Amino acid sequence: QMESDTKGLATLVAGVASVAMLAFLTSRIGRIRSRGPKKANVFTIALTGGPCGGKSSCLKVVKAALEKQGYGVYLVPETPTILIGGGAEYPGINGGQSLIEFERGLIDLQLQMENSFLGIAASVPKKSVVICDRGLLDVKAYMPRALWEEVLDAMGLREPDLVARYDLVLHMVTAAKGAEKFYTTANNAARKETPEEARALDDAVVAAWAQHPRVAVAGNGGAAGFQGKLDRCVAAVLGALKEG
């Protein structure tokens, strides 16, 4: 009986050790992935904002301005749009386990895409800018804080490492704040928010990026209208590049 108990205890200890090792390896792999490739010659931007903020237009004008300055420009596509366009459905902020799986899949895919673009950009001598259509911290705005922390823990990720991936965060304020007559969901099949929901999401995205040291916010209004908003985006990017 004693020999049987000893073997059982040894098996239990080995199992616990295996679980602990798996958790350790998951954490290490997650941290390595979240840091991304070494990128001495690459400047990384998270282009974010509320619904109908003008991100698509901003991407075009910023890309053109950077190429005029001699930079190589890489555009990482918006991951939620890829998933939703492929048939996945955002379960909603109260989606429970379905929401966890959706956001885990989103983070996993976005990490891989960003790291691929960063690795390619870093492999060439030309100075480059990688613009991510939404950054990883955007996910935080679309789920309860407890579930966000659960997902990070399960994937072995740390929020400070995700923040540090980006040299600049450029936030495009939703048209539902200050340019209400231009707010629409017609130009994006993945966008379903009412103006009220868009304003709340805009605030949530701002809060999600609050700990980043360099956030530029492009608001609405001004005599130059939407073109003025785009001009401010270009100025923010070129200014950040000049600062280094």
Automatic annotation (TrEMBL):
Residues 45-214 form the NadR/Ttd14 AAA domain. InterPro entries: NadR/Ttd14_AAA_dom, P-loop_NTPase, TRPL-trafficking_regulator. It comes from the Eukaryota. Keywords: Membrane, Transmembrane, Transmembrane helix. GO terms for molecular function: GTP binding; phosphatidic acid binding; phosphatidylinositol binding. The chain crosses the membrane at residues 6-25. GO terms for biological process: photoreceptor cell maintenance. This is NadR/Ttd14 AAA domain-containing protein. It comes from Heterosigma akashiwo (Chromophytic alga). The lineage of its organism: Eukaryota, Sar, Stramenopiles, Ochrophyta, Raphidophyceae.
